[in-house]
Structure formats: C-alpha cells, structure tokens
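Lecture notes, structural biology module. Today: joint structure prediction for complexes of two components.
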Amino acid sequence: MTSRPQNLVVTGAGSGIGQAVCQLAEAAGIKVFGIDRDALGLAETQERTGASIAVCDVTDEAALIRAIDSAVDYFVGPPDALVAAAGVYRIAPAQEISAQAFADLLAINVVGAFVSAREVATRNTEGGSIVLIASMAYEGGDTNEPAAHYTASKGAIVSLTRQLAVEWADRGIRVNAVSPGVIHTPMLRLVDDPVKAAAYLESGVPLRRFGAASEVAAACMFLLSESASYITGVILPVDGGATIS
Amino acid sequence: MTRAAIVTGAARGLGHGIAARLVGDGWAVALVDQSEDVLSTAAALADEAHIARGYVLDVSNPDACITTVATIVRDLGTVTGLVNNAGIGGPSTLVHLTEPDAFRRVLDVNLLGPFHMARAVVPQMQGAGQGGSIVNITSILGQQGEAGTGPYSASKGGLGLLGQTMAMELARDAIRVNSIAPGNMLTVMHEEHVQWLAENQGISYDEALTQVRDAVPLGRHGTAEDIANTAAWLLSADSSYVTGQTIGVNGGVIRT
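The predicted structure, tokenised, for the full assembly:
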C-alpha cells in the first residue's frame, strides 16, 4: 500500500525491539539490514527474518560507517529508513557511577544513535524517515532502579530527535522517537522479581501489563511509513499509559 | 466481525477524511454532524462492500448524544471506536474582550461535546467487553497558546487533559484514549484564522498563508489524509500499548 520505506537499517537488531522491528519490516516486504555487536543474536535475527547483517559495535565510528556502506551495497542504493535501537541499560546509584562508565553509556546510547542517523541521512538523497528510541526514563527520576547515566542518555535522545527533525526537514527526512515504557525484552530487570513486577504493573501501568517488543516495533513501523508523512519531531510514548499515571 | 466506529464533525474537512479512511479500512462508520450534509457525505462513502451512515447531531446536546448513539448501536452494532473531531473555531477577539456566551459556546462544542459523546459511548463499550479506542482531535493551539485564540486554545488544552484522565479511568476496560494535535491544516477553520492573521498584520491573505507555511519545517500544510492516517493507526490494534498520549501531526512545528 505504502511505497516507503524500502531500505531499512536497524541497529540493535540482535534482540528485543530491534529484532521485532526487523520481523515486522521483513513481513511488510521491506529490505532490512541489521547491525548489532552481538553476533549470536544477530544470527538469530537473520535466520528469523532473512535480513542482511553486519556485526558492529556502534561506538566504533569507522566500523559503523563501513557497516552502513555494506548496507548501501546490499540495498543497491541508499537507505531510506533507520531504527536506531542499539542501547544498553545499567542500574547503579549515582554516587557509584564513574566518569568512564557514564561516558561509555552515552557513547552507545547517544553517540551511536547520532552517528547511525548521520550516516543514513548523509547517504539519503530522496527523503526518508528515522526513528530513535527514547525511554519513559527521560520523563522523570526513578529511585527503584537508579540509572542516572541511562536517564540522561534518553533525555539526550529526545533533544537530538527534535534538533535533527528541524535540521533535516527541508531534505524530506523525518526524525521521530518512540518512548517505550516497561517492555518485556532482555533489557528488562523488573521480571527478575515477580512480586515486585506485579505490584508495579498494578500501581504504575494503567493497562496493567508489560508491553511487547512487537508493540514498540509497530509504533516504529507507523512512524517510518508514509502514513506518518506529516509527523516529525514527535516523541511517541508506547508505555501502556505509564507516563500519565 | 465488522467493527463500528463513530466520527463526529464528519460532514466535511478532517472528519470526512477520517471517516473515509476508516470506511476503507473496513470499519462500519457512523458519520455524525450537526449539518444535514452529513447524510449525503455518508451516502457517498457507502457501497455494497462498505458501511457508512450519516446521523444529524449537535454534540453539545447531551440528551441527543445519548439517543443518537443508541440508534447507531442499533444500526451498526457495538461501537469500539470513537473519534471526537467536531469542533468550532470560535471568536478571535482578545480574551478580555470576548463575550461570555461566545466563549461558552466554544467549550460547549469542543470540550463538552466529547464529554457528552463519552457518556453515551463508553458504557456500551464496557458492556460489550471488547475494549475500544477513543481519539480526540485537539490542536497544536491546545499545546501552546497564541494571541486571538483564547477560547479555542483553552477548549483544546482541556480536551487533551480530559483524554488523559479518561485513559487512566478506562485502562482496566482495555479502552484506550489518545489525542491527535493537528498543526496547520488547510481547513475552512484554518482559512478563517489566516484571514484574521492577515487583517491583524495588514498583509494579504496569500502573504499570511505563506508566512504560516514557511514556519513549518516540512514546508507544507497538513491534510485531512495526514490526520486520518494517524487516527486509523490509533484505532487499530497496532497501537495496543499506546494510551493517554497526544501525537502532534504538525510537520515539525515542535511543541511539547
């Protein structure tokens, strides 16, 4: 029905939201190139979806540029879409976070997303759509799972989304972010304690269940599609109502 | 099973575009409007494979909302989708110079209309136990004010918060409530606003229109189709974990 996107790059494609995006995209007939530093997870994605892949750490700028060059070769043309889902979540009280640990996390979650977006946008000449992954964590603090570096990284994603949206609008490139709530992925720590998890869902999530990676992926697909052609610079929460409660 | 949805303010403009999209998606659609034109608008969307019916209703009338929704449920079956799109622009006078009755009329239609529709629709959604999705059409002016839009901005800001409240109240019934905040759409309502901008600045209508468009990063006005696409997504199962949100469909005129 919709002609775009045709060529999609997904970072963090080896698990969770990134892998779910690859599955929905392949099912929709979109060519997918998946990037992840986890070779095993990436192989699983390839097996499930038929996506082409490159093992690459998004903090290695030169390697990431080469990976996206490989994507161009695979597509036989420039990518017109990106979902930058590579990211890590680490819980630590603020007083125990070293400068190096803080910088390392920003390098993955923020700089990795930025370089991915820049490289896709640089190669794109005919308009496209980019989706970054924020988190409900950017909206406010959390004492149960303190993660100052993670929270700050997601705040940066929100600012980055709005800046790139305005900067690249005249090139026909839309930039939006999906802001997941508590989603059942390998990143989720809350499921380690079922009693705590049930209590959280009861009090903190109006829809009273975890989200599925496929539900976040569906929001990514909507923002990538021509259906969202007048939407740019938005932060779309997919959180079961958690951030309004 | 056919799904039934109601779209208010559906005789023309955004509402018509939303209804047309939903009909195409396979919804049985009740088009509601205070204008009798809605009957022919609906008739034009219906054929052997597509269900669309028109209903004349002023959404500011609470009793009429109850009886009309009952008729719609009888005609089309359980309603699991509601798009509150009906709205009026209202006076462009400065707030302190605005007649109370003119202000009240804007609230009656734009804010209380969706409230009356919710009172009529939600109990049967809960009774049917299939969940549902309610979409309120607010406005970028409900996210940030602008001189000469007092009653309208207040009504749309209020509608956004009403939607958030309902999202929390109805989540247990798997009824999701979200808002779409359109930016500058080329509707009759927007044309009136541009006319006011032109008069206010002593420039021509075309100059004012260009001024508005140039402020949009994507460089164009929005269309009914843009809004309809997002409304269709919010009514669909693809947005099943999204509730209580406002999605700005505004070409990058960023407000939070």
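Point to remember: The longest helix of chain B spans residues 150-170.
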